[in-house]
């Protein structure tokens, strides 16, 4: 009897985890830069600049008030992905401890990032996950958000290299997560999230080392 109960519990847990992963991934697929540029401006942002479907490349290429739409889209999809994830878990399991809800946020956040970076509806060519990732950090814990966003803003302002601030965000995320939540599952998920962000910036790392990386400017290139 006990074995059957545990088996049913594991099946329910796996089902809930899969549902959260799928919904978070498809939320992440709604890439603001691609949607606005391709369907509103009729000029895919991935055909310009760095070829990245992210906020920085969109601003450098198009600028204008539609940048706010890109920001709003990438922020809201991360919020929705995590909210739905929490709702799913609470629907399957009642009175879940805080640590479990936190782990769900990381799980949903990871798949939201995967959807943003590799969107199936846009030929798996998406962004680098900084804005969505930063939103996920805020949703998880203000202490994590403070370290991630604080370092990002300081480095970006001082050096004008958005990529350098982004690398800080990706690299610091797992370590501050480890400090705040020394749980093996959470640490693994945090390293997966941070590792994805750093990996997506591998070309930027090469340009930073060679001194050819573009600096951010509020005046977009014509």
Structure description:
With 222 residues, the chain is an all-alpha fold. The protein has ten helices and no strands. The protein is globular. The N and C termini lie far apart (70 Å). The model has no long low-confidence stretch (mean pLDDT 89).
What is the makeup of the main sheet?
A: none
Apparent shape: globular
Helix share bin: over 70%
Alpha carbon gyration radius? 18 Å
* N-to-C CA distance: 70 Å
Q: Tell me, rounded to a whole number, the average pLDDT.
A: 89
Give me the strand/helix succession. HHHHHHHHHH
Q: Give the class from helix and strand content and strand pairing.
A: mainly alpha
Report the portion of residues in β strands.
under 5%
- Could you state the oligomeric state of the chains shown? single chain
Contiguous runs where pLDDT drops below 50 for at least 5 residues: none
Topology (elements, then pairings):
Layout: H1 2-28, H2 32-40, H3 55-61, H4 66-92, H5 98-117, H6 130-140, H7 142-159, H8 162-180, H9 184-200, H10 202-210
What tags apply to this protein structure?
74% helix; single chain; mainly alpha; 222 residues; 0% strand
Write a brief structural summary:
This protein has 10 helices and no strands.
